[in-house]
Specification:
Elements lengths: L1 E4 L22 H10 L8 E6 L2 E7 L13 E4 L2 E4 L6 H19 L9 E4 L18 E4 L3 H4 L2 E13 L2 E9 L10 E3 L1 E4 L6 H13 L3 H4 L3 E12 L2 E13 L13 E8 H14 L4 H13 L9 H7 L5
Length: 323
């Protein structure tokens, strides 16, 4: 294991693991548990949220009383919450949602810490359009901090950065800084960020790679897109419906990531055996930010490192990958 510090690390120290063999045979069930924990939710506790005639999200039913004071913004009928029909375009819908979000944040404290990023709300979230001249225009833009409250789909980009030599593959991981709102001190992919309005996926990856790990544009341009991974899980703030666009990048052996935005406390270069062990036990010990553990499992799967795992086909299916 190699380690490089970005800022002072105040989180719990990393403890090397047992160094078991890398067949993955002893980890099959725990790999599946890790995936299951990222998809635990009960929609019976949620109410559908509609916009412009489309089902776009899920709201915790016990939070609906907070919205009834906004009778000019929301309609309540037939067990559904709908944004009022008189909001007829993206601009008016976005303004209405922003007003409600600011009010909920100030009066009720039911939103996570405010983050000034706008996320899109698409009529068909299975086919989001982040191309520079996209034709699938969003129904609305919503502040990132309100996405969970309304149970809206959100997207992000994650990068697996790795090096390879005669001894095999090693993976660069980032430890989240102590000031991060969610999962401070936990391990993350070397680059990870949300997908906001106004950037293509590739441009967002390039921006995040520069800010989080000092990976220059010429190097990140060599990253290969590897599809996406989705998960849906209940959180204290609402339903998280997330899709991660996954990239792999083979880094030069002499490259060392360096954080520019202060969100990473340190970077670790780990053997795949260490990474495999941590991914297998993260459901219990939470080494990783949970959705980042899925990206790591996917990397191990695609690079043949789980080929001897008895439940490989089930793991692939749970990740939405070909067996």
């Amino acid at each position: 294991m190699e380690k490089t510090s970005g800022v002072e690390d105040k989180s719990a120290p990393f403890h090397p693991l047992s160094g078991r063999d890398n067949t993955g045979a002893h980890n099959s069930v725990t790999f599946l548990n890790c995936i299951a924990d990222c998809n635990r939710h009960d929609l019976s506790r949620f109410t559908p949220f509609h916009m412009a005639g489309h089902s776009v999200g899920w709201m915790r039913t016990d939070t609906l009383p907070l919205l009834r004071r906004y009778d000019d913004v929301f309609d309540f009928a037939s067990g559904i919450v709908s944004l009022a029909e008189h909001f007829e375009d993206c601009t008016s819908r976005s303004e209405a949602l922003m007003k409600v979000a600011r009010d909920l944040d100030a009066k009720d404290g039911v939103l996570p810490p405010w983050r000034d990023e706008l996320y899109p709300v698409f009529a068909d979230p299975t086919h989001p359009d982040f191309t520079p001249n996209g034709t699938a225009l969003p129904l609305a833009h919503i502040i990132r901090s309100a996405v969970l409250f309304f149970g809206l789909p959100a997207w992000g980009v994650h990068l697996n950065g790795y090096v390879e030599d005669k001894n095999g593959i090693k993976v660069w991981l980032a430890r989240r800084g102590p000031s991060c709102f969610d999962f401070p001190g936990k391990l993350d992919n070397v680059v990870a960020g949300g997908q906001p309005v106004g950037l293509s996926i590739d441009d967002n990856l390039a921006k995040e790679a520069q800010e989080e790990a000092s990976i220059e544009a010429s190097l990140i341009a060599q990253a290969s897109p590897e599809g996406s991974i989705s998960c849906t899980v209940e959180t204290p703030f609402g339903l998280s419906v997330g899709t991660t666009f996954v990239y792999d990048l083979k880094l030069p052996s002499g490259f060392t990531p360096r954080s520019l935005d202060g969100e990473v406390s340190e970077f670790l270069l780990l053997s795949t055996n260490e990474v495999m062990e941590m991914a297998a036990t993260t459901a219990k010990t939470l080494y990783f930010k949970p959705n980042s553990a899925l990206v790591i499992l996917d990397f191990l799967l695609r690079h043949g490192l789980l080929d001897r795992t008895p439940d490989r086909a089930n793991i692939a299916a749970a990740l939405g990958r070909e067996a």
